[in-house]
Specification:
With about 260 residues, this protein is mainly α. The chain has nine helices and no strands. The longest helix has about 35 residues.
Length: about 260
């Protein structure tokens, strides 16, 4: 096995572990529970989960998706999230090499996945994902020197201000809260990773996707719109394709 393959495998294994922790965050943060205590237990029989039954992905496969003690099925969400984050870390290394950008891609994608799932399930975006992610984004931006850091700060400010203004305008028009505080804080985090241009792409893509998919359903069934889900998709698009979109749009304006 070559050195590159070893790095990819190592990244996937690290991603599996982070995915396991993300599962804990998704389960506990919306309930304001500690991420450290108490130990994880089976939801049915309350038996503490031993370390050998808590190995990311492999334990679920070994136990055939059931609790060792009461044989109650274990949610497929756990191995799915672990596998997704593991794949995300591996793909980041393959796409960007061993670099700070690869680390940013992996961590940003993990944060977006956590936000999307918690917002879809609970209509909540925990501050740990938004403010914590903002700190991570700003720290990673230091790898680009002062210009990189200032771009991240500007992106965070634009993201927070833009969605805040959208929320105020929506509240004025519809006479009720139109934008959750979690969405606004989320865009500050997103801006620290993708910059102010990426913020514009994120909001446009998220709004377009939400309008096409969820808004018609919400109008019919009077359901709340977990806008964070669509912003997460838009942010992923901005991170991966943002530069190409900006270049294309520049040529479009010039008529090239």
């Amino acid at each position: 096995m070559g050195a590159d393959a070893i790095l990819v495998v190592a990244a996937v294994l690290l991603g599996l572990c982070i995915g396991s922790f993300l599962n804990v965050c998704i389960l506990r943060l919306p309930r304001d529970q500690s991420l450290l205590h108490p130990r994880s237990t089976c939801p049915n029989c309350k038996q503490p989960i031993a370390w050998r039954d808590n190995i990311p992905l492999f334990s679920w496969l070994w136990l055939r998706g059931k609790c060792r003690w009461c044989h109650t099925p274990i949610s497929k969400q756990y191995p799915l999230i672990e596998a997704l984050v593991g794949a995300l870390f591996g793909v980041s290394i393959l796409a960007y090499g061993v670099s700070l950008h690869a680390l940013s891609a992996a961590l940003f994608g993990t944060l977006l996945l956590g936000i999307a799932i918690t917002d879809a399930r609970h209509y909540i975006i925990p501050d740990e994902f938004t403010w914590g992610g903002l700190v991570i984004g700003l720290l990673l931006s230091l790898g680009g020197g002062m210009p990189g850091f200032l771009n991240a700060v500007l992106g965070a400010v634009v993201g927070f201000a833009l969605l805040g203004l959208v929320g105020l305008a929506g509240s004025w028009v519809f006479k009720e809260e139109a934008m959750g505080g979690g969405d606004i804080k989320m865009m500050a985090m997103v801006g620290s990773f993708v910059g102010w241009r990426g913020v514009l792409i994120t909001v446009f893509a998220g709004a377009a996707l939400g309008s096409l998919i969820f808004v018609p359903l919400s109008l019919k069934k009077k359901r709340l719109v977990p806008f964070g889900v669509f912003l997460a998709v838009g942010a992923a698009v901005a991170f991966v394709f943002g530069d190409a979109i900006v270049v294309w749009y520049g040529h479009f304006l010039k008529g090239d």
